[in-house]
Structures are given as structure tokens and as C-alpha cells.
Amino acid sequence: MKNMFCVLLLSMVQPVLAQTKLEKAIANLENNYGQEKVYVLTDKSQYAAGDKIWFKSFVFDGYNRSTLSTTLFVELYNSDKKLIDWRTVLLTNGEGNGDFQLKEDLPEQVYFVRAYTPYMTNFNEDFQIVKTIPVYNPNSAESLVIAKSSDWSAKVFPEGGTFINGTPTKFAVRLSSGSALPENWSGKIIDSQNPNNPVATFKSFDKNVASFKITPVSGKKYQAIIQDNTGKSKTVDLPQVADSGLNIEVSSSKEGIKYNIKGVNLKQQLQGYKIVGLINNHLAYRANINHLTNEASSLIPTKISNGANGILQLIIFDEQDNPVVQRLCFIKPGNLKIEKAEIVGQSLKPTPRAFNSIDLSPESYFKNYTVVVSEDNGTPTPEDENILSSLWLTGDFTTRIDSPAQYFSKNANTEALDALLISENWKRFDWNTVLSGAAPAIKTQSQQYLSYRVKPVKNNALLVNTTVNLLSKSGQNQPVFSQFKTDQSGYIYLNNLNNQEPLEISAFVNSENKESGNDDLFVTIEPLVTPTTFKGNFPATKYTLVKADKNKVLPSTISRAINTQKNIKKKENNDIQIQEVALVGKKKDPKAELDKQLSSGMFSSVNSTVFDFVNEDQNTSGYTNILDWLQGKAAGLTFQRNNSGANVPYIRGQQAKLYLDEVPTDPTMISSLPVNNIAMVKIIKASGLVGDAVAIYTMKGNMQAKTNEKETKKNNSSIIKGYDTPSEFPIEMIDDDAPEKIENDTRETLYWNPNLFDSDYVPPRIKFFNNDSAKQYKMLIISFDEDDNILYDQQVLK
After folding, report:
1. 299: nearest Cα among 333, 251, 336, 342
2. What is the pTM of this model?
3. Which of 153, 395, 455, 549 is most buried by its number of CB atoms within 10 A?
4. Is 99 helix (H, G, I), strand (E, B) or coil?
């Protein structure tokens, strides 16, 4: 939903020629206060030590997927705020995924996943997501249990923040707790001078909120008495009744948001007051009251957000542009704009280890899906949070909300959501700060991908304003040669790197002393996009740790997870044995295999000499140029130096062609290529399409040069880790003869795919193997179309 906000004006508005303080503040908001928020989806809600946590992250800018950031840090902490593990996640259209492998000896306790972009560190840390992850371990001396009861506190919030004599006012009652809230509660409003006759009564909508309405009388003191289902009681004072001020009443429907403003004992009534509606930090509605009146009302249509859902912040400003009333309200509650997945075919078999498939429509506007399929045990378990509650609620509020997903469920109570918003304030910015013209200090600018600072040092001295050649090598890709000039501080900057494999950076400089080469050149690389230390406190949870009983009882899902870990180990051990048997049966020439792997047909020749650097020790120590090493190694191969001093190969008196990974090159490029990056050299003599040639091939993948000498650290090289590559979820964890190895398949997550693509009108297919007990399946699908309309579909399939 790429929202094109409409700005609506009341008919009483007159054109304003000069920009007012309020208009400057709105411009300040839109230009300087854009902020991101994150939602993290995990494949399960609780884990056993030794499990793998699969996660998918969604980063939003307002209610749209963010294009601001391309990097997300996801960190795993224990309850003592010790960093256990972390991932640098590549974001594409605001989405990225990864995984954490939990150690088997991880103590049983609550762990926390923190996720944030570098740009988010410019703002309040409280808006960074911290997700609770309970982890169980049968060998731990302590056990996690859910707290049965907890102390709680309560507050009351008048609608708009004002409580005025003789004016009917709606209140929200909000409970909060360090851990668990009572299941239900109720209360009454009393006049402290006449406590036996309640002014109003109320019952909780849910664990979080309730609401009531009263008409106050000046001079009276009102109190709320709240009692929970266990008998605990609290008394809370209502605000003092004012004799003057401004009252607002708001109601939301599918047609729009209706507001009614009433002024009481105001000097100029409502003349000069302004009504402003914001969605995030963008102006969506604006009206001025330019005549004498004590009441004003209007309906704000849903077209201010193109019919999309979200929170509208209504603020009333007085004639001096001071905010006097604020109210949060939800656009179209009960009419959520959520698309459902279109399933065009499915084959589900409840038999153990059967193959199942679900086909989605190839003609949908949605082309990339996040899908989780797990066993459903038939017991309804409402989710505590989901992407809807994060997008529309908790991503923008820092106070703890119990089970926020309930407000966007099928049977959601819209009154409860409205009461919740009455009890909340928009804290992403402070109006007094914005009106003063101040803007947040942006210390960490948003940038594309990752950046690094390279510092080459030669003879213990910085190389200032010096030309340096850098060779970068990643995986099976060809090495890339680049030339840089250091700045006045001796640094080279590598910006916007998007590598998901380790990148080896080697530096070379020209030296008058050919003997010394680059032995005295040292290189260090400093990342410029880095994680930050968590300074806040983790959120309170409903869990507590107690001393474990002798016969420790684990949740059934955890026992099943531990059994699944054993099954995975059995399968891995069996696969290793099969590979070992296969290797013993092979008696192939390693050099021939390497030649076959690296050479294409054009470079295949019976009249060739091959030097294998992977399987044979070629004694290259002391050589910085492979062409120097080749002298005298092959019959008919000689070298002559050109004007640059580089060796040029000749075969039987004729200059030979020179290739690097079968791409034509020249001796100058080869002279800078580290010898230990070379996997094979092939001398081809007047054969086939190539003719006389020297073909040099670089290392691919995990290849390493074989040497019997002690490996010496290359001071002129350093490794750039880059983004973490996500593991691949095993779609088929068992094979045809698996029953012989696995007695009981107890997997909970049967399918995890954070990037299921639709391509060339082929139906996107969800495919998985059943475990031994599942009769029905819980499927979750999330997707966004090009306009950021959301598809959210959670259903049980049988």
C-alpha cells in the first residue's frame, strides 16, 4: 500500500500566504522524522537447545516495506544480556532471512532476538524489536515455568487527555504488569464523597483494557476501583475536573473517522484552532476553524490513506499553534485490508512420511511468498503476535501489550482496540521539539549495502596519496583487480559491497626493490557498517526460572524437538558413511578430475602439460609471479621480458596467448596475481582452437593450494566477511529407506521457505514430507505486492 496521502480541508479554511509555525513543524516532521520498524517471524515459538532457529525479517518505513536500508543486524542474547550470536542480513525490498544454530549445552532460560537497521540507531532504542525466545534443555538445573500470578498496576486515560466539567468523557482503563496480567477484571467509578453509589461500572475487554464514560462535576474527586479474578484490588484517581478546555470525541468506521470537538469556557471559543491528522510522520488531514463557534465536527474519509489501515494521530492546536488535545484512532477497524492466498490445487495425505503439495495461483499480483507449514495438533492456540500487530501497533509503541495479535483477528473487538489507543501516546517524536524546529541528529546515515576502510602499511609507515592495487576474490568468481589512490590519511574506502561469500582483499604496491615484493606490506580492513551495543533492558516475560525437579518434565513439543535432533544426527552419520564408501570406490586421477572441472571444451587438448596446485605441492614458496615459476618447467616454453619488465611466454619461438580463467589477459595482470590463488596452469601447444597458450586457473570454492611447508600468514591480505548466507531448509529430511534409520519422525516445522517465488506462470508449489503423526497442517503465508498491499493467510488444512 504505497500510500498517497490526501490532505483534506474544512470549508471554513482560508488561504494562508506566510508559512506558520505549525506548517514549518509539519515540514520538519516529513523531512526529518521518518523511522523504520522491524518484524521478525520465527518458524516456532519455543525451542530446544541444539535446535536451529529459522527467521524472516520484514523492515517497514511507516506502513510500507522500507527501501531506506539494505542491512539488518539480528542478534541473539541470553537473559544476562550476553551476546550469543549475531547475523548481518541482506535486505531486498525490506525483506531478509537467516538462521541461528543453538548449541546443545545452552542453559534453559529465556533468550532474546534483537533486530535493527543501522539507521534505526539514530532514534530511541526502545523502538528496536526484541523478541522473546524460550529455550529448553533437559540437562539444565533450572526449568522454565509460566508465572501463575503477578502484581499489576492500573491507569486511567481520558479521551484526548482532558476532563472538563459537564462534558461527557470516555475513559480507557489500562493494566500493566512485569509478567502476567489477570485473565479478567472489572471495576467501578466512585465519587469519593459518596463511595457507596457507583457513578459507572466496567468490565475488561481483554487482559489489557476496559472503558467507561462519565459526565464529571467540578469540585468532585473521582476514583476507579479495579478488581481482578483472584480478588486483588487497586484504586486509581481520575484526573482533576477542569472548568475550561477542549473535549474531543472520536469514532472509527469503514466510512472514515468522525470527530466532534467541543470548547468549554474558551476566550475566543474555537476560533483559530487547527485540526491536524498525521499518518506516521506524514500530513494526511488539515483543517482550520476561522469563525466563532464552540463546536466543530467532521468525517475524515478513508481516502486519506487510500483505504489502507493504520493509525491516524489527531492533534488539535490552539491559536498560538500549541498542541492541546491528542487522540490516536485506527483507520477502518473491523475492515482490514488483507489479501488471502489463492490455492489452485493441493495434495495432502495424512499418512506417515507422505509427500504433500500445495499450489498457489500463478496469476496472482503477489509474486514472492514467505511460507511456514507445521503440524497442527487440533488445539486452538491463538497467536500472541504477528506481522499485522507489529505493522499496525507494537512496531510504533514501546509499552507492553498482551497478545497484540488479538486486535487484528477474525473476531477482534474494535472497542478494545479503540480503548487501547486512547491509553497510548505517539512517542516517535515530541511536538514541542518539532515545533521548536529541532530535528534528530543523524549520526548513522542510511547507505547501500556494506562499506569498509582499508589501511595499507608498508615498512611501518602509512601510504599517503599512494597508488595501491587491490585484488578481490570471492568464492568461484574470477579475481578482480582494481587500482586505488590512498587519501591524505592513508586510507582506501570500499563502498556498497554486496557479497554473501567471504571476500579476500589483497594489496600490492610497486617497489623499487623487486626482491622484497610485498613482504613488508600489511593490510587491515575496518567495517564501517557495524552493530551497536544494546544499552536498554529486555522486556519482562511471562516466564520464570525455578529449580528443576529430579524427574524434569519437558513440554511435549520440546521432547519431540530433541527426538528430531537425534534423527538428524542419524541421517547425517549415515550420509557420511555413504560418501566414505563412494570415495573408497573411486580411483580417478585427481589431476585429470581438476582439469575436467576447470577447463572448457575449447581448452581441452591431448597436447598439453598440466600443473596441479590443488593436489600436488608445486614448491612455489618464494615466488610472487607464476610466470617466473614456470620458467624451465615445460619443454619448449621460454620467456622474454617486455618493456615493462614482465615475462612474456613463448612456445617454440612464437609468442603464446595468455589466459586467466579462460579470459584473455596480459603479463602485467598476471604479475599481481598471488601464486597461492592459482589452482592449475595448462601449457597448450599448437592444438585445437586455442593454439599456443598458457592458461592459468584460479581457486574455486573451498580449494586450497597443497603445500608441505608451514603456511605463512599473508600480511598483505585480509578477509571481508560480508552478509551471512542463510542455510537451506531441508525439504526432504528423510529418504525412501528412512524407516530403517528413523523410528519416529517428530518434526514440528515441516516446511520453511522465506522466498517462494512465482516465475513464468508456473504455480508456486509448497512441497513437504509428512512426519509420523500429523493429520492436519497449520499453514502461514505472508506476501506483499508491488504496491505493498499485504497478503496474510493463516489456516488449518486437512
Report:
1. 251
2. 0.82
3. 395
4. strand
